[in-house]
Amino acid sequence: MLTIGIAGAGLLGRLLAWRLSLAGHRVILCDKNPAHSQSAAAFTAAGMVSPLSELAVSERQIYDLGLRSMQLWPRWLEQLNARHLYSKNGSLVLAHAQDQAELAQFHNDLKRRLVQEPFDADTVSQAQIKALEPQLAHFQQGIFLPEESHLDNRQLLPLLCAAIVKLGGRLLWDCAIAFDNTVPTADSMARLQAHGISHPIDLWLDTRGVGAKQSRSSVRGVRGEVMAVHTPEITLRRPVRLMHPRYQLYIVPKADQHFVIGATQIESEDLSPISLQSTLELASALYTVHPAFGEARVVESPTNLRPSLPDNLPIAEKRGQYLFVNGLFRHGYLLAPAVCERIEHLLKKPLLPDQWRADFTSTGFTEADHDFHYI
């Protein structure tokens, strides 16, 4: 059994803390923010698990890892007694009549990326759209992705903290941990001692996302803006994506007829409020999906930074007692379970050297995996 310190209590940090606690390790999860904070990117996200939707605009490994996460989420939520937070009703991709070429291009991109591989993406008629989403029957054609899913991320995150504590883990809030290369700074160690942590940490996991930039110059934040709206006039059962020549809109249903609308993607680390341009683009596109959204109330419009590396792909890198895990970009809920499972597996290997890197280019677990490198 190891004593494992985890710096950063976003989705990845919480999932790893829970899984490693289940495996019998003594886990200490630290975060610079107070317990009630919702500043992590995981709170801003829509919580979609949509590997096919992302394949057209992402690397193949995002799709492969997403398929694995799609298998893991229901199992893990069962373990948390939270299966009700997971909805597997598929995704519906739509386009207005003048943008049907975008819809056709999306379908062609999927076929091109998955040559000779089966995948579920069904072209649906207006009548079939009406059966799936009665209030969207004015769309003439769409693509239905029946295997995709979404979850209630804002209810999940506090449940993970409760599960960690129940398993004997510790949560240290207002406890920023920084690293000087691969070693916690003296100030960080003083913070731990102030919380009564005096015994040595066998392994540090750095899951701080954009917060790791101070010690890892390759980390960058990518600005994303979303809107959360409420209207009693619209009911949707699944995420809906609207194809458009300039941008793609998604609408993700939440509890009590709330919806998350997103999202912009801007190469900036600006955390100021949502811009007028983004507000107009998101709101006007939403209105074209159904005019009843025109009377929706904007509940919030948060901005956040997606943790990204130069290639927008995830990586895990271990040097001695320091393990850096980062780069989930805009795919947090799509990738996190598969990445966590891989980390769990690697930490169980008794003969691994002190320095290695896994870049997740495969999803197998054999010694011959080409995504595993000694460094």
From TrEMBL:
GO terms for molecular function: flavin adenine dinucleotide binding; helicase activity; oxidoreductase activity. The keyword Transmembrane does not apply. Gene3D superfamilies: D-Amino Acid Oxidase, subunit A, domain 2, FAD/NAD(P)-binding domain. Residues 6-342 form the FAD dependent oxidoreductase domain. Pathway: Cofactor biosynthesis; thiamine diphosphate biosynthesis. Keywords: ATP-binding, Helicase, Hydrolase, Nucleotide-binding, Oxidoreductase, Thiamine biosynthesis. Pfam families: DAO. InterPro entries: FAD-dep_OxRdtase (IPR006076), FAD/NAD-bd_sf (IPR036188), Gly_oxidase_ThiO (IPR012727). GO terms for biological process: thiamine biosynthetic process; thiamine diphosphate biosynthetic process. It comes from the Bacteria. GO terms for cellular component: cytoplasm. This is ATP-dependent DNA helicase RecQ. The lineage of its organism: Bacteria, Pseudomonadati, Pseudomonadota, Gammaproteobacteria, Cellvibrionales.
